[in-house]
Amino acid sequence: MTVRTVVTGVAVAAPNGLGTEDYWKAVLAGQNGISELVRFDATGYPSRLAGQILDFEAKDHIPSRLLPQTDVSTRYAIAAAGWALEDAAVGPDTLPDYDMGVSLSTAQGGFEFTHQEFQKLWSKGPEYVSVYESFAWFYAVNTGQVSIRNAMRGPGIALVGEQAGGLDVVGHARRVIRRGTRLVVSGGVDSALDPWGYTSQLSGGLVSTVDDPARAYLPFDRAASGHVPGEGGAVLVLEDAGSARDRGAPKVWGEIAGYAATFDPRPGSGLPPGLRRAAELALADAGLEPGDIDVVFADAAGSTAGDRAEADAIREVFGPRGVAVTAPKASIGRLCAGGGPVDLATALLSIRDGVVPATAHTSDVPEEYGIDLVTGEPRTLAVRAALVLGRGRWGFNSAVVVTAG
Amino acid sequence: MATMEIDDLRRILVACAGEDDGIDLTGEIEDSTFQELGYDSLALMESAARITQEYGVVLPDEAVSDAATPRTVLAAVNSMVTAAA
Amino acid sequence: MNRRVVITGIGVRAPGGSGVKAFWDLLTAGRTATRRISHFDASPFRSRIAGEVDFDAPAEGFSPREIRRMDRATQFAVACTRDAVADSGLDMSALDPHRIGVSLGSAVASATSLENEYLVMSDAGKDWLVDPGYLSPHMADYLSPGIMPAEVAWTVGAQGPVTMVSDGCTSGLDSVGYAVQLIREGTVDTVVAGASDTPISPIVVACFDAIKATTPRNDDPEHASRPFDGSRTGFVLAEGAAMFVLEEYGAAVARGAEIYAEVTGYATRCNAYHMTGLKKDGREMAEAIRVALDEARLDPTGIDYVNAHGSGTKQNDRHETAAFKRSLGDHAYRVPVSSIKSMVGHSLGAIGSIEIAASLLAIKHNVVPPTANLHTPDPECDLDYVPLTAREQRVDTVLSVGSGFGGFQSAIVLRRPEGVSA
């Protein structure tokens, strides 16, 4: 019999809330985490908005010894992993070291840190480059730091798959647990809001140039104009259900019941995109029918083409207006590898409290999309099962089904 | 070039590698090994690079090993600073 | 479902010659391909040597648009993918695209392209507030390099799971391990897997300079990479790629494919010790080896050759030697252990896959590649490292290991399938 993978710890570090409960309150209240950039003077830049975490005092959350060697994104990862483990009541001695693994995603690495080192190298010389640059930048940094900080010596991995990678690592964590590791810390964070990182995100052509924080990122709205880059993410503690019970885990948030990933055909091929197939495969993997799903957390590209494609996929799987759909990321921006894990955390909160948050700011959904988007106010709804979708630029599609367990 | 005092070294260590939660760097640290002060080889390499930038002297690897102490580092730096003057 | 997974195609771009044949000729001759850095003026740097690949994109068949679209690391991966598919004899277009996956490893992905764009946007480091007017349309892809596995997927028409595994210097082992799991669990039947890294750029050279991990033996580039030798002073940075076609065993047999090896075991562990340091005892690498052997249902004595990480840093070579003794017992002293990094350098995430390629060829040809430049072993490295000269011997089973920053320790077991003649 296949091992069940349950979530026993959750932590969110998002632009509108630091910590799971603060985030949840902010999301339900429709509090906007998108604002004018404060990290640098973006006057003259084509876009000037971001989903920024403004209340994270690194020294309050990270040991002093780690501050000089970590990028802001790694600090979020270390802090969130600590909160998630606290939520799960897991310490370094709760389980044998080899029974705890780490599976985290970042798509941008320690970018602000590396920007500083690039500048030192080119403006001052090689001898000014920090010894920490050799690891503070690369994509594996968060997995390594979280493993070290929490004495986890089981399997470790870092996956990069743009916005879909944050769901892929959770799918992989479940695989690792099925192969015998009792606990895996999983999720993702990203941050690239220094001038170079932010500008680089603009080059995809998908970032909104609207300068009103309440109008720039309007997924599924007729006025959709692109997305707003954000920072942060979420970390989950996943466990073998039997093992969690045996150690007396204080709570079970839910179960990672299904997962699938697909890739779109080559652009211009005329073949259908892979999101619908990812959703269907994840449902099949969970042993559920479309009618069993109470809410879909959409990828929510915020571009007309991307929204339409996703609406098509949702409608084809669930029928016209066949399921509640929401995109809480509308109030925090797209967090790259952090986006999927935040949606998973939000889905688990919806399961816990029987309420689905609204898609902030979106009000005018084209009729032909045929989706029942939760707008305006949160919707009271008993949630037993949720489908979380994630897409990455160039064709990554991932889908995770979470259930009440 | 100015000589290096213990407060300078303390500032460089904290800037380059932070400080261990359980260790009081403000006390008498001159004769504690860097290992006892919570600094590993990476921390010391970063600090040595900063010393080079500020004082213009290149410390040999063994002078900044985790078995070295603030006193030996200060002596090494200041002897080189003096020699260069 | 626990299906068996075999490797049926190889593509390699490594220093010292293009393609599998040149690569194997170099290794078996014990020749080295490390040289003075030519990609940029390395004179201000501590370590000025590298294993560079002579790669001519137009001659490799890349069109002008492909060359614009794909950065060097992506070109390497795609060139190797084309070779691997051709080598496998598999008609990818005849397969169900939904049942094909991609697992690409890379440690620093588009680092070189990032640096090139940085120079323009910052005007050579002058401006912290980079000028968006000089933004390249590819910059988002260099920042978040999903385009690399995407290009591989488009090359073979894959529409199953596509991902990049980025575990630093074990990426090239872990990407293959990831692929094996996808096929075993039944998610897909075919995966194009491997790794590519092209890190020979000023920022990467500078960051390894800073921690003195790379060798400063600049006066003697050909003999600079000296794993296990008492005179070693660090690794030699390199670039390269290797890609493979992995298939479900039954499908490969049914189509009469030439099988290089079955992947019978794979495991990875974290040391949770230090981002760059290694404990002397090799405990976690030994555990990864033990679990991989266990999965392969193999006793240590069943290993014919160990393809070592052998980076040539003092701490790695001792750590690894301890790990072999800890996991293999007395057999550690009998089994040949060698490091091809002595010849092709250390291409970060790519090298794990390049070493798998060497291991597969060792099985195919029954030859153990040597450790070049090994004249006087470090007394603490007292195993049979196959110094200088390749060794003809029966090779049915290879253990290949990797170790990387972040504490990653990985091991993979490759075995000639029964019924395939030696």
Automatic annotation (TrEMBL), chain A:
Matches recorded under Gene3D superfamilies: 3.40.47.10
Any single biological process term in GO: fatty acid biosynthetic process
Record-level Gene Ontology MF annotations: 3-oxoacyl-[acyl-carrier-protein] synthase activity
Domain of life, source organism: Bacteria
Domain Ketosynthase family 3 (KS3), first and last residues per copy: 2-404
Coiled-coil spans in chain: none
Record-stated family: Belongs to the thiolase-like superfamily. Beta-ketoacyl-ACP synthases family.
Name of the protein in its database record: Actinorhodin polyketide putative beta-ketoacyl synthase 2
Organism (species): Kitasatospora indigofera
From TrEMBL, chain B:
Gene3D superfamilies: ACP-like
This protein's record includes keyword Transferase: no
Domain Carrier span(s) in chain numbering: 4-81
Phosphoprotein in keyword set: yes
Keywords: Phosphopantetheine, Phosphoprotein
Coiled coil region boundaries: none
Entry superkingdom: Bacteria
Name of the protein this chain belongs to: Actinorhodin polyketide synthase acyl carrier protein
Source organism per UniProt: Kitasatospora indigofera
From TrEMBL, chain C:
Species of provenance: Kitasatospora indigofera
Family annotation (PANTHER family): 3-OXOACYL-[ACYL-CARRIER-PROTEIN] SYNTHASE, MITOCHONDRIAL, POLYKETIDE SYNTHASE-RELATED
Annotated Ketosynthase family 3 (KS3) domain residues: 2-416
SMART domains membership: PKS_KS (SM00825)
GO molecular function term, any single one: 3-oxoacyl-[acyl-carrier-protein] synthase activity
Biological process terms in GO annotation: fatty acid elongation
Protein name: Actinorhodin polyketide putative beta-ketoacyl synthase 1
Domain of life, source organism: Bacteria
Family the entry assigns: Belongs to the thiolase-like superfamily. Beta-ketoacyl-ACP synthases family.
Keywords, sorted A to Z: Acyltransferase, Transferase
